[in-house]
Amino acid sequence: MDESASSNPEMGHSLSSIEGRRRNFLTESESFNNPYDSTWEDDDGPEIPSSEFNIEWSRNAQRNTHAAKDMQNFRKMFQSVNCDDAADDEELGDVYSEREYCIPNLLFYQNKIASLPDGVYIKEFHEKWYGDYSRLEWVPSYIQWLFPIQEQGMNYDSQPLTPEEIKLFRKDDAAKKRLLKSYKLMLDFYGIKLLDEETGKVCRAEHWEERFKNLDRNTHNNLRITRILSCLGILGFEHYQAPLVRFFLTETLVEGRLPRVKRSVLDYFMFSVLNTSERKELIRFAFEQFEPKREFVWCPKRIQRRFLKEIKARKAETTEKSRDPSGSESGVRWPTSNDF
Fold this sequence. Notes:
- The chain is mainly α and about 350 residues long.
- The protein has helices at about 15-30, 65-80, 90-100, 105-110, 120-130, 135-140, 145, 165-170, 175-190, 210-215, 220-235, 240-255, 260-270, 275-290, 300-320; strands at about 5-10, 15, 190-195, 200-205.
- Helix 12 (about 240-255) packs antiparallel against helix 13 (about 260-270).
- It is globular and about 65 Å long.
């Protein structure tokens, strides 16, 4: 055998030694393990040999590292807040009664103070801004008040959430009801409808076509939706995150809509989900729907190979069930490596 060539089982052919080493680096060393994504850090699932699937990973496919870092920072910031600590009740009472300046977001949602610089109270916002799509699109300063998070936004008249404020807000049922109303208002703006307040399931609203065109045209809304998802997780509506992300994954990857939203769905929306199990299932769904798979970069290659094995097993099971009683295949072909 020519010593200037090396065999790469994942590529399925011989390469020059230099090209072989370079591609080996791209396929195995560059394994899509991202230091800013903790989703799979506790994974102890089975390792699937790289030779089992003949995938030529794209050389140009790269994950948005800044997005991964931003979303991991968001998740870690919230994890540092112990929302289940009942021992803090007395201390929280002191914050509420003596340091109201520390809880402007809660006071806004209690209708005690107006947003700045717009000077709008939450009740007025719900009554007068619902369906005012021009104002919702072009006024830049309301979103930080409507959906506060733990990071400073572009409106410097707003304040990020503090740990004490988060705990107080999550205990305030009236404030949470108003937050839910704000969520419905923004869903309507995007052409989406909340179907079930218990589960968070959403669907396209009747006027979705017009609103989807606006959403795809004005990409600053991608940042707003990331903020909305983050706020929902922080302030007691964590179970609303995954249904909305699943909706956007379906619209972009399955239905082929919202092409200018698609990358944000994968880079940001998906990784705003605080529940790790739900986040993993969303990534699995995204991988199954994404094409071409060789360009999917949102989980490690070892996880992708596991997903591929599961897909192959399901296809084989479906083929087996489709056979007629005589044992013939009823026109269904068995999957090959080219299917992946």
